[in-house]
Amino acid sequence: MDSAAPREPGATEPPARARPRLVFRTQLAHGSPTGRIEGFTNVRELYAKIAEAFGIAPTEILFCTLNSHKVDMQKLLGGQIGLEDFIFAHVRGETKEVEVTKTEDALGLTITDNGAGYAFIKRIKEGSIINRIEAVCVGDSIEAINDHSIVGCRHYEVAKMLRELPKSQPFTLRLVQPRRAFDMIGQRSRSSKCPVEAKVSSGRETLRLRAGGAATVEDAPSDVEAAAARRVDDLLESYMGIRDPELAAAVVETARSSAGAQAFARGLDAVLGEFAFPDEFVVEVWAAIGDARDGCG
Predict the structure, then answer these.
(1) Which residues of 208-225 are buried (b: 16+ CB within 10 A; e: fewer)?
(2) How do residues 245-281 score in pLDDT, each as one tens digit?
(3) The pTM is what?
(4) C-alpha dihedral sign at 151, 49, 28, 216
(5) What pLDDT, in 10s, does the model give residues 113-142?
(6) Crossing angle, helix 245-256 and helix 261-272, to 10 degrees?
(7) For the segment 49-86, what is each residue's pLDDT rounded down to a tens digit?
(8) Over the chain, what HEC string results?
């Protein structure tokens, strides 16, 4: 027998608890009014929403930073956005071409990508070949190598192309720099339309963007996971010439569900096989993640 109390005549069902809308504030990094965006599940959809808010093409957006309008590689938007984060979109500025002669094996570039078809420079090593070319800057998108367009290539593919270029033979890079506001170029006062530094979120919840499937609200990574991801990111730079915090986080996530080093290697091959990680890299990563766990207690 149903023991539930009878409903009063005319009573209605209580409304289902609605999930709050996740609305994010955004600006163009060189200066614009503030826009509001929602309803995206991956980076491509995020760029489309930002482009729609400001009446530009999604392909105009090179990358986004969180809570800072500056070209700050420590503030790059990856696969997670704090629920109170402010999104600044850096759009295409001037195009430039530079000629480079590879006199050493390494150019001194670290490459990352925006998750939507553009690879760009995340770091330039001091004293390197590229460091001696003043026209090349952190934040520049690499559009072509020797007139061969690399738009749509992932960062590890671009890094591999640059590594394989022959020594002592000049080559040309076509770069696109992000558009900058006046106050980011010279010592000028900020106008009313220039963006300001946004308040950094203190919350622990983030929106996790996914290449496939819906975005989910999750707790921010633990201190152990964050430390492990930083170590993996350092190894990615050492072995592959790329930096990718989201890729590093995916590697750490794979390790968390692996019973041992061999299971971890199989998991990486199954989930991230396209990167073709060398065996020595996998061994070092497994050890680094273990060290991070030990170091954080």
Answers:
(1) bbeeeeebeeeebbeebb
(2) 888 988 998 998 888 899 999 999 998 888 888 899 9
(3) 0.79
(4) negative
(5) 988 899 999 999 999 999 999 999 999 999
(6) 130
(7) 999 999 999 999 999 999 999 999 999 998 788 889 99
(8) CCCCCCCCCCCCCCCCCCCCCCCEEEEECCCCCCEEECCCCCHHHHHHHHHHHHCCCHHHEEEEEECCCCCCHHHECCCEEECCCEEEEEEEEEEEEEEEECCCCCCCEEEEECCCCCEEEEEECCCCCHHHCCCCCCCCEEEEECCEECCCCCHHHHHHHHHHCCCCCEEEEEEEEECCCHHHHCCCCCCCCCCCCCCCCCCCEEEECCCCCCCEEEECCCHHHHHHHHHHHHHHHHHHCECCHHHHHHHHHHHHCCCCHHHHHHHHHHHHHHHCCCHHHHHHHHHHHHHHHHHCC
